[in-house]
Amino acid sequence: MPQPIRLKDHEKDASLVRRRVIVGAVVVVLLTLTLVARLYYLQVIQYDYHSTLSENNRVHVQPIPPTRGLIYDRNGVIVADNRPSFSLTVTRERTGDWQSVLDTIVEVLQLSEEDRAIFEKRMKQGRRPFEPVPILFELSEEQIARIAVNQFRLPGVEVVAQLVRHYPQGEHFAHSVGYVGRINEAELKRLDPVNYSGTHHIGKTGIERFYENELHGQVGYEEVETNARGRVLRVLKRTDPTPGKDIHLTLDIKLQEAAEAALGGRRGAVVAIDPANGDVLAMVSQPSFDPNLFVTGIGFNAYAALRDSEDRPLFNRVLRGQYPPGSTIKPAVAVSGLEAGVITPDTRVFDPGYYQLPNYDHKYRNWNHSGDGWLSLETAIMRSNDTYFYELAHRMGIDRLHDYLSRFGIGRKVSLDMFEEAEGLMPSREWKRARYRQAWFPGETLILGIGQGYMQATPLQLAQTAALLANHGKWIRPHLAKTIEDQPPVDENPIPDILVRDPKFWDYARNGMVQVMHSARGTARRVGETAAYHIAGKSGTAQVVAIRQGEKYDRNKLQERHRDHALFIGFAPAEKPRIAVSVMIENGESGSGVAAPVVKQVMDAWLLGADGQLKPEYVPNAPLENLDGQR
Amino acid sequence: MGNGNFDRTLSDQDVMRRRATLLQRLHVDGILLTLLLVLASGSLFVLYSASGRDWDLLIKQASSFGLGLLGMVVIAQFEPRFLARWVPPAYVVGVSLLVVVDVMGHNAMGATRWINIPGVIRFQPAEFMKIIMPATIAWYMSKRSLPPRLKHLAISLLLIGIPFVLIIRQPDLGTSLLVLASGAFVLFIGGLRWRWIIGAVTAVIPVAVAMWFFVMHDYQKQRVLTFLDPESDPLGTGWNIIQSKAAIGSGGVFGKGWLLGTQSHLDFLPESHTDFIIAVLGEEFGLVGVCLLLLIYLLLIGRGLVITAQAQTLFGKLLAGSLTMTFFVYVFVNIGMVSGLLPVVGVPLPFISYGGTSLVTLLSGFGVLMSIHTHRKWIAQV
């Protein structure tokens, strides 16, 4: 059935629609004329322009890579800059047969098949049509000359000057600043293809990696007209790139060198932090390597040598090395015990040379088997007495110990801007259940009290623990960048300060640490005796191989690589700390004998003037409070 | 002899009449069909050149065209009243499919436009909305009085808004704008009051300005700027525009000749056989070629508008008008963007760009036009 039509309405609707159709038709015609006008403009008025571009083999857009930001140490000494270097580029579309052009290059420069394979790999990383792909870097004068002479056989091959990263300080900052390297395929996938269209290098580790976005800058471009052979005839339009931001580091090159000298060729790590502001003043991991090797691509053999070396120069001991903190954790355990209320400064514990849990036979030994007799807290720190801290850990229990020591940063990433920092490990009941499917044993709590067992910390975390003891628990994440283009870095995820009921708790721990250095029975008194100022310090050893019950540690039986690692943390001047230091020496055995002198040398380098006295600005204006050893 | 002569004259007219009636009996509009065939054959020439003489591509396109023609004829067989009855369920199904695509896209951690049942069917639900959308609004408005009242306008905008948002999330800006336009044109043809149209346009400006200064982040502003002026980003989308302008401009008045374009053949022009195919046509056939193409388009649109004016039902008028105007939007946006007048949104050039789905959708639209025109109860002057 036809639908009911109200004739009058229908007429009205029809005329309304008809009027709108006419409007539509007029608009269609007008807009079509606009298109025709546009085409007329392009094809008739601008014909010569476009035609010439087309004849001369067209317009190219060339990205102009931004200049990478420079990196300075805290005094303005340059740590990473950009050096012009000549590279060989190939534009695949212009070569005709690029495989045979590669053959010619290999022949002309007398290179090997291995190099050719690398070239081929690099050619495949080209991204846009007509993009010149660099395949060989740091050309010598001779190589440039050889290419020039054979240019007629090498269509699409060009020698171009590029800025390439250079690290004038060589090995000094390899583990903190890191290095840049060629962009690999995985990185290619996650990078912004536009911003990186002219860039061939990217930060791989360290500051170079962490601040990649800031250092890189914004790409520029130029529209150029080229001839059929790809030579640029003129620039049609240019937009300059925005250079990357410069970074000033907190590191001090003189202190860095002093710390390396103090290590004296031994394998190990040194971290120095300014406890007042979290600036990392020195960060040394020895042995190191030359980061310049990695910039333009390290040869396979050279890389294999670095990678397979027994001394592990590529291993960043400061950030990735995880060691049981040993006795260096005792001052932090002491503060935790005071805050938890399980001990007071006057609590006395008798040490017969070992500790036994009630109802257990196992003897947990003090390092001094003859025992230290009656001990107060400060004496226990001074003597590094194990029995006292077994008792303290037993009274706290694992849950509280885990809670308090976590606040010191053990088991979490502490740095603000360091790439690939290890977390260390602060064990707990939950952790053990998840990891080993076992309950927590009371004995495991005891050895945590002396920093052994499952607990692991990086040298950076140990230095931060020292800084927290120095500044009374004020958390400032240690950082390497002082300013980025004059802006200090911002901590988006600050760690809460460690608050204690009585600020004197910090003084008790510090006093024990001062006595370690300066008391007649202190474990590191030989180092303290020579100091021109008061140091608060604590030694430690990290076991490399376990010793069985009843067995004695005999250095002569152990291979050198199986000896304990020597640890030491400290800060100075004890009255008003200006520097907190941690030192780890691989297989160094004795914290107070081997690591402590290194700590003092680093402190001397920072605190003492040329006359061997404290620099005037570092002289404390008040004597130590409550420091007399006989409370 | 005289008798035979008489017979011949008669039969001549008779054949003419029968031809007309054959087309009519098939419900096919001769004018539209002729123009479409001309366009299709021309497009194969351009595509052959643009694809770098790829016969496989050509055969695929030709078979899509055949399939589309078949679909067009089938659709033309249904009466508009019958089509109108199936519009509401079609709308519900269409929107549901868009939701499915949206959910799938999120699960796959990436954008998708396709519904893919392997071995059975693979299609983009958004494409079908290009026809379902105007049909829905036309169906809704045909039951209301004209010009649209505020309440009916609001409901229509809601009906348009849902698929629009779903498609823009895919993200497919080009298709979503076409769907939006197709719905809006129904309201326009239906006599939407001028002051409302002007009011809406003037309201958009302060809102946009406020968004710009108070809501958008710098990087979003940057993206909008690049979108509005692609040539400011010559390493990204601007690259295509710079190259396509050079291609069109170097064609001059008469072009470089078929298969003789240089810009488009040296990989300078990405997507030269899809969205940017007009650059190939402009380079090889010059201003004359492009104007000829525009003329064919104008004739198609003119015929569409005549069908609109002559349609007998309100549903038919509104739908025919909207389909015709949307077709013009395709043409205008595509040529505008390739020649650097408009921002780059992914809209193909109808019947010329390579792509089966868009071809089938477009031809289905013309099937609807033919259905509207050939099912009238009394034949007015053609």
TrEMBL record, chain A:
Residues annotated as domain Penicillin-binding protein transpeptidase: 268-604
Leading EC class: hydrolase
Pfam families noted in UniProt: PBP_dimer, Transpeptidase
Pathway: Cell wall biogenesis; peptidoglycan biosynthesis
Stretches of the chain forming a coiled coil according to its record: none
Catalytic activity, EC: 3.4.16.4
Keywords, ordered alphabetically: Carboxypeptidase, Cell inner membrane, Cell membrane, Cell shape, Cell wall biogenesis/degradation, Hydrolase, Membrane, Peptidoglycan synthesis, Protease, Transferase, Transmembrane, Transmembrane helix
Family matches, as SUPFAM superfamilies: beta-lactamase/transpeptidase-like, Penicillin binding protein dimerisation domain
Bilayer topology: Single-pass membrane protein
Active site: S327 (acyl-ester intermediate)
Matching InterPro entries: Beta-lactam/transpept (IPR050515), Beta-lactam/transpept-like (IPR012338), PBP_dimer (IPR005311), PBP_dimer_sf (IPR036138), PCN-bd_Tpept (IPR001460), Penicillin-binding_protein_2 (IPR017790)
Residue ranges of domain Penicillin-binding protein dimerisation in the record: 63-236
GO molecular function: penicillin binding; peptidoglycan L,D-transpeptidase activity; serine-type D-Ala-D-Ala carboxypeptidase activity; transferase activity
Superkingdom, taxonomy of origin: Bacteria
A GO biological-process term: regulation of cell shape
Entry GO terms, CC: plasma membrane
Intracellular or extracellular location(s): Cell inner membrane; Cell membrane; Membrane
Transmembrane segments: 21-41
Chief localization: membrane
Catalytic activity field: Preferential cleavage: (Ac)2-L-Lys-D-Ala-|-D-Ala. Also transpeptidation of peptidyl-alanyl moieties that are N-acyl substituents of D-alanine
Role noted for this protein: Catalyzes cross-linking of the peptidoglycan cell wall.
Protein family (similarity comment): Belongs to the transpeptidase family. MrdA subfamily.
Name under which the protein is recorded: Peptidoglycan D,D-transpeptidase MrdA
UniProt organism field: Pseudomonas kuykendallii
TrEMBL record, chain B:
GO-annotated molecular function: lipid-linked peptidoglycan transporter activity; peptidoglycan glycosyltransferase activity
Protein name: Peptidoglycan glycosyltransferase MrdB
GO CC terms of this entry: cell division site; plasma membrane
Catalytic reaction annotation: [GlcNAc-(1->4)-Mur2Ac(oyl-L-Ala-gamma-D-Glu-L-Lys-D-Ala-D-Ala)](n)-di-trans,octa-cis-undecaprenyl diphosphate + beta-D-GlcNAc-(1->4)-Mur2Ac(oyl-L-Ala-gamma-D-Glu-L-Lys-D-Ala-D-Ala)-di-trans,octa-cis-undecaprenyl diphosphate = [GlcNAc-(1->4)-Mur2Ac(oyl-L-Ala-gamma-D-Glu-L-Lys-D-Ala-D-Ala)](n+1)-di-trans,octa-cis-undecaprenyl diphosphate + di-trans,octa-cis-undecaprenyl diphosphate + H(+)
InterPro entries: Cell_cycle_FtsW-rel_CS, FtsW/RodA, RodA/MrdB
Transmembrane segments: 26-51, 57-78, 90-109, 121-140, 152-168, 174-192, 197-215, 285-306, 318-345, 351-372
Keywords on record: Cell inner membrane, Cell membrane, Cell shape, Cell wall biogenesis/degradation, Glycosyltransferase, Membrane, Peptidoglycan synthesis, Transferase, Transmembrane, Transmembrane helix
Associated pathway: Cell wall biogenesis; peptidoglycan biosynthesis
Protein's UniProt keywords contain Transmembrane helix: yes
Protein family per UniProt: Belongs to the SEDS family. MrdB/RodA subfamily.
EC number(s) on file: 2.4.99.28
Alphabetical GO biological process terms: cell division; cell wall organization; peptidoglycan biosynthetic process; regulation of cell shape
Any Pfam family hit: FTSW_RODA_SPOVE
Name of the gene: mrdB
Places the protein is found: Cell inner membrane; Membrane
Function description: Peptidoglycan polymerase that is essential for cell wall elongation.
Organism this protein belongs to: Pseudomonas kuykendallii
Membrane topology: Multi-pass membrane protein
Top-rank taxon: Bacteria
